[in-house]
């Protein structure tokens, strides 16, 4: 009986460590998602309401209306409400298709885990976003076209 209790405790501890390791981070998980689905509109000087999602600092700064994420409070975060459609307009405006349920759940876990940054050197390359003096070409719209 003691052996069974120890075995169960070991399994619980291993499960907890696997879940903790799987917690999403900004640089590893959230930044690539935002780059793929949000930066077409939410980057640069013309970002709606000044909400730039091109860096963790800008995301935390929020918009002209205030913060869009509240560490530890996904339900109270406007970013999550816009992704789920509980606040309108639902994001991304280029949807449908909108984010998949697993992607929204990942954002929710990230917010509820207090917005961990992760390792910046591990950031995946961002989607191509043209500068103000650059001509827009296929690489800037490829991801949008492939989703359609």
TrEMBL record:
InterPro entries for the chain: Cyt_c_Planctomycete-type
Keyword Isomerase: yes
Signal peptide: 1-20
Pfam families in UniProt: PSCyt1
Domain Cytochrome C Planctomycete-type: 38-92
PANTHER family referenced in this protein's UniProt entry, alphabetically: CYCLOINULO-OLIGOSACCHARIDE FRUCTANOTRANSFERASE-RELATED, F-BOX DOMAIN-CONTAINING PROTEIN
Entry protein name: Fatty acid cistrans isomerase
Organism: Ectopseudomonas oleovorans
């Amino acid at each position: 009986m003691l052996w069974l209790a120890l075995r169960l405790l070991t399994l619980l501890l291993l499960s907890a460590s696997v879940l903790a390791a799987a917690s999403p981070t900004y640089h590893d998980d959230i930044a690539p998602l935002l780059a793929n689905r949000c930066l077409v509109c939410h980057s640069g000087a013309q970002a709606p309401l000044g909400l730039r999602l091109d860096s963790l600092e800008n995301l935390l700064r929020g918009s002209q209306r205030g913060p869009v994420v509240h560490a530890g409070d996904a339900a109270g975060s406007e970013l999550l409400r816009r992704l789920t459609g509980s606040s309108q307009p639902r994001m991304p405006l280029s949807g449908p298709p909108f984010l998949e349920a697993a992607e929204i759940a990942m954002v929710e876990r990230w917010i509820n885990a207090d917005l961990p940054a992760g390792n910046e050197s591990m950031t995946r390359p961002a989607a191509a976003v043209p500068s103000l003096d650059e001509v827009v070409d296929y690489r800037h719209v490829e991801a949008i076209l492939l989703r359609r």
